[in-house]
Design a protein that fits this description.
- This protein has helices at 39-47, 67-75, 86-97, and strands spanning 9-12, 18-21, 25-26, 58-59.
- The chain has one domain.
- Strand 1 (9-12) and strand 2 (18-21) form a beta hairpin.
- The model has no long low-confidence stretch (mean pLDDT 84).
- By secondary structure, it is of the alpha+beta class.
- The chain contains three helices and four strands, in the order βββαβαα.
Length: 99
């Protein structure tokens, strides 16, 4: 199988079944930077991504983020955005990467 290069992840491993995602940390909502975007700014960033984009968010609490932050974000996502678990995310990335 041949895999297309992607800007958000890379498929590696001898069996081509390991997905490494480009860092995308969300540490909190107070700083106004990429890592500390407000919930509305993060939702807009996700909603505006190209349809078919496969990516992740690594949410950390060291900047004040919490599960309530994530729940608020999910409530602001457009209908075309699908939130999935880690296993399905890797499966989608592998499907997206196959040429």
């Amino acid at each position: 199988m041949l895999f297309k290069p992607h800007e958000d992840f890379k498929i590696v491993g001898s069996a081509q079944n390991v997905v490494l995602f480009k860092p995308n940390e969300w540490r909190g909502t107070t700083g106004g930077t990429h890592q500390t975007a407000s919930v509305a700014d993060m939702a807009a960033r996700i909603n505006e991504a190209r349809r078919g984009t496969v990516t992740h968010i690594y949410l950390t609490s060291d900047g004040g983020a919490s599960l309530d932050t994530l729940y608020s974000l999910v409530g602001m996502l457009d209908d075309h955005v699908e939130v999935v678990g880690a296993t399905e995310l890797v499966d989608l990335a592998l499907q997206k990467g196959i040429e």
